[in-house]
């Protein structure tokens, strides 16, 4: 007759060894599951970050192409600051660059921004056209934009953020002769840099007078 | 061992049950939990992977939409190269509607720069292309120039020189603070302002360094001094060229209707008592005053008078197709107005002597004319060719050196062609349209706003146009007609000569493109892209006004925001 039969109210318990073994197994299983979930979570999170960076890069491509696809010429490029001035359209005086026709693209402070000349809205169209002077092809367009900025007559918007670095490569020594351009951006994906390459062709390339 | 009936103790349990109790534990539970966890994690991981293909699909559809857009734009330009006049379409806004290109739904509209249906024989239109593939839209705009390719020489040679925004035979002055540029509300605000000169001396061209020359091109005679030729493309002029000899500067003859028109009065008429319709015919002095509205009506109808004076808020209302022969002076002053009754009305005023518009309006509504603070941008656009002011030919009595004064903040919307007149625009006045004069002076604070749509891009200013057989060399027939012009030749004489001389011509110089396609003429539609998406981004960034864009901000802003 066993102890359970002799003592109807008592149940056989676990020995210490059995308990320890069970605890160890439970702990190992929990550790395994936990590490697996952590790994999957981090992988998913990394994928999400990379996907976000990819989407951001794609958005940047769409916005940059809105400018570069229609650009007539790259007027000026500063290798030190990577500031680039493009001739976006030719409206006022044919074959000549006017103030409002240029755009300044800069990569700085984590942003890719575009800046343009915008005269006060209370100016009449005639006044605006009169102030929209012709810039000779050998002008310092970056300085011209800076001058307008000093007058408070420019506006800017961000094309892309979380940008660590950027650099332009042109297909010709002289920016105005370049018919193709490549922009390399390093995007910040939560500590992991992601490089994006953008190639542009100026299909309506025109050299200004 | 059998249990006694009154034994209150529990029966001993079988050995198997006792072992089962001893084996009770949490292993199964743990295993179930582990399986459930793994299942959940796996399912979520798989679900997250499903979005990656969708992202790829979006990128693919974006590319499809973009290239469908480009293809549709090229197709639209090719359609315009066939000579199709977009104004002839029932709805140019649906130039192509719900067409499928490479699986994308494409819509193309053709409009003018303001988004309105293009006028007949438009020389520049805006083509807007929208391509949609699975919810992703690509929108672009192109500016398409449509230089007439089959313009008969007779139509290309315009005796009234509408291809020139201003033409000055002897002198041109644009003072500091004066403006000479395009009229922003005309159908072609992007067009050039052609400035033609009939003189050869550099000193006769006085343009202040502080004058507002906008989109102007300078055209000088072949015999011009080298210093004058050197000003082409400089000093505010963006370009230009040398004109051939013989640009005609002619006036109108006395209208043929004058000889047979009914004589209405033998004395001067002061119309100050009541507004009424004036019968066609010949009058002496006509004065419209005291806010009365006098209507000249008919299609066509001829009126003649000695002096025509409109003053003190009086209104001359033009209804229909009216010709007015002013045998002396035309005066519009003191809030007076010459107003067109409706969109189909037009007037041709032949002036013998002087013209004065002082604190009044011509070609504008009475509301504008009666506003002493009026300005050209307060006037709605009208086609200036609907208000023609023509100087009478000097050979038929027109005054040489007649004075045309536009002053006192007056607004004149008209096409003025008076080669013998001295036109002086001063006192913050505005002339919207065009002008031909002997002497033209635009004073400080005044402006001449040119309607570039009057230029059909086929005349003397187009070196490879229908008038030329090679660059800069006129066709023999054209040169012959121009060489036969004398001091007594009138516009009507020249038009009659042209009708005979240019009865057959070979204006078409560009050969159609051959092949198994609809015949079309190369370069008859010249397209340049407009950075619509960039403009939409900028407008959305600063608050979404329509300034800076051709039109239709909403669609383009929406397509830009899809990217976010």
Describe the structure.
- The complex is a heterodimer of chains A (209) and B (564).
- Chain A is an alpha+beta fold and 209 residues long.
- In chain A, 35% of the residues lie in helices and 30% in strands.
- Chain A starts with a helix and ends in an 8-residue tail after the last strand.
- The mean pLDDT of chain A is 85.
- Chain B has 564 residues and is α/β, with parallel strands linked by helices.
- Chain B has three domains: 59-149, 2-Layer Sandwich (Pantoate--beta-alanine Ligase, Chain: A,domain 2); 153-247 and 457-501; 256-430.
- In chain B, 20% of the residues lie in helices and 33% in strands.
- Chain B is built from ten helices and 33 strands.
- A six-stranded parallel barrel of chain B has the order 18-20-23-26-24-21. In chain B, strands 1-2-3-4-33 form a five-stranded antiparallel β-sheet.
- In chain B, strand 1 and strand 2 form a beta hairpin.
- In chain B, 46% of the residues are buried.
- At the A-B interface, helix 2, helix 3 and strand 7 of A face helix 1, helix 2, helix 3, strand 6 and strand 33 of B.
Unreliable segments of chain B (pLDDT under 50, ≥5 consecutive)?
Answer: 506-510, 546-564
How many helix segments of chain B?
10
| Beta-strand share of residues of chain B | 25-35%
How much helix, percentage-wise, in residues of chain B? Answer: 10-25%
Number of domains of chain A: 1
- Number of DSSP helices of chain A? 4
Beta strands of chain B, count: 33
Q: Globular, elongated, flat, extended or rod-shaped: what is the shape of chain A?
A: elongated
Percent strand of chain A equals: 25-35%
**Spatial strand order of the main sheet of chain A:** 1-2-4-5-7
């Amino acid at each position: 007759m066993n102890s359970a039969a002799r003592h109807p109210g008592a149940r056989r318990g676990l020995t210490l060894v059995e308990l320890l073994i069970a605890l160890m197994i439970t702990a190992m299983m929990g550790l395994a599951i936990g590490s697996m979930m952590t790994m999957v979570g981090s992988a998913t999170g990394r994928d999400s970050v990379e996907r976000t960076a990819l989407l951001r890069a794609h958005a940047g491509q769409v916005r940059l192409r809105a400018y570069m696809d229609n650009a007539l010429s790259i007027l000026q490029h500063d290798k030190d600051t990577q500031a680039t001035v493009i001739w976006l359209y030719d409206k006022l005086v044919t074959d000549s660059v006017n103030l409002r026709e240029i755009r300044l693209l800069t990569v700085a402070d984590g942003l890719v921004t575009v800046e343009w000349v915008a005269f006060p809205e209370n100016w009449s169209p005639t006044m605006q056209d009169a102030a929209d002077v012709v810039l000779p092809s050998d002008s310092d367009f970056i300085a011209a934009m800076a001058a307008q900025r000093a007058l408070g007559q420019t506006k800017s918007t961000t094309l892309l953020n979380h940008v660590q670095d950027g650099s332009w490569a042109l297909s010709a020594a002289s920016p105005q002769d370049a018919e193709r351009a490549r922009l390399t951006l390093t995007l910040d994906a939560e500590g992991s840099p992601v490089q994006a390459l953008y190639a542009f062709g100026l299909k309506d390339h025109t050299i200004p007078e | 061992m059998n249990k006694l009936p009154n034994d209150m103790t529990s029966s001993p349990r079988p050995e198997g049950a006792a072992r089962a109790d001893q084996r009770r534990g949490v292993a199964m539970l743990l295993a179930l939990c582990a399986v459930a966890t793994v299942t959940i994690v796996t399912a979520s991981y798989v679900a997250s992977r499903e979005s990656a293909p969708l992202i790829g699909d979006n990128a693919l559809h974006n590319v499809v939409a973009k290239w469908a857009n480009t293809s549709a734009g090229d197709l639209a330009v090719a359609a315009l190269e066939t000579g199709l006049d977009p104004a002839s379409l029932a709805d140019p806004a649906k130039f192509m509607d719900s067409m499928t290109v490479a699986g994308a739904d494409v819509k193309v509209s053709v409009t003018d720069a303001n988004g309105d249906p293009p006028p007949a024989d438009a020389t520049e239109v805006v083509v807007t292309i929208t391509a949609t593939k699975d919810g992703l839209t690509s929108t672009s705009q192109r500016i398409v120039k449509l230089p007439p390719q089959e313009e008969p020489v007779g139509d290309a040679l315009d005796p009234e020189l509408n291809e020139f925004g201003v033409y000055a035979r002897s002198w041109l002055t644009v003072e500091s603070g004066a403006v000479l540029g395009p009229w922003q509300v005309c159908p072609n605000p992007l067009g050039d302002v052609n400035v033609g000169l009939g003189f050869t001396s550099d000193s006769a061209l006085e343009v202040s360094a502080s004058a507002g020359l906008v989109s102007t091109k300078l055209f000088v005679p072949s015999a011009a001094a080298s210093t004058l030729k050197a000003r082409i493309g400089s000093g505010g002029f963006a370009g230009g060229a040398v004109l051939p000899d013989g640009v005609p500067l002619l006036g109108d003859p006395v209208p043929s209707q004058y000889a047979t028109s009914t004589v209405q009065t033998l004395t001067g008429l002061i119309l100050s008592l009541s507004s009424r319709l004036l019968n066609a015919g010949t009058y002496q002095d006509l004065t419209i005053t005291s806010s009365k509205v006098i209507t000249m009506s008919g299609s066509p109808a001829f009126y003649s008078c000695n002096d025509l004076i409109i003053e003190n808020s009086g209104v001359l209302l033009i209804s229909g197709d009216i010709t007015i022969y002013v045998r002396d002076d035309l005066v519009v002053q003191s809030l007076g107005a010459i107003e067109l009754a409706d969109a189909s009305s037009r007037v041709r005023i032949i002036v013998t002597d002087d013209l004065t518009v002082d604190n009044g309006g011509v070609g504008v509504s009475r509301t504008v004319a009666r506003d002493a603070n009026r300005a050209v941008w307060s006037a709605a656009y009208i086609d200036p060719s609907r208000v023609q002011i023509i100087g009478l030919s000097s050979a038929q009595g027109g005054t040489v050196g007649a004075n045309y004064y536009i002053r006192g903040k007056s607004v004149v919307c008209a096409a003025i062609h008076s080669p013998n007149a001295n036109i002086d625009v001063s006192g913050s006045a505005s002339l919207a349209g065009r002008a031909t004069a002997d002497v033209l002076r635009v004073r400080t604070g005044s402006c001449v706003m040119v309607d570039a749509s009057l230029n059909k891009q086929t005349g003397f200013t187009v070196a490879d146009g229908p008038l030329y057989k090679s660059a800069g060399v006129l066709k023999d027939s054209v040169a012959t007609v121009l060489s036969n012009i004398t001091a007594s030749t009138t516009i009507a004489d020249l038009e009659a000569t042209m009708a005979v001389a240019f009865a057959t011509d070979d204006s078409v110089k560009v050969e159609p493109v051959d092949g198994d396609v609809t015949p079309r003429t190369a370069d008859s539609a010249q397209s340049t892209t407009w950075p619509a998406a960039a403009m939409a981004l900028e407008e959305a960034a600063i608050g979404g006004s329509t300034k800076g864009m051709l039109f239709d901000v909403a669609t383009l802003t929406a397509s830009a925001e899809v990217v976010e």
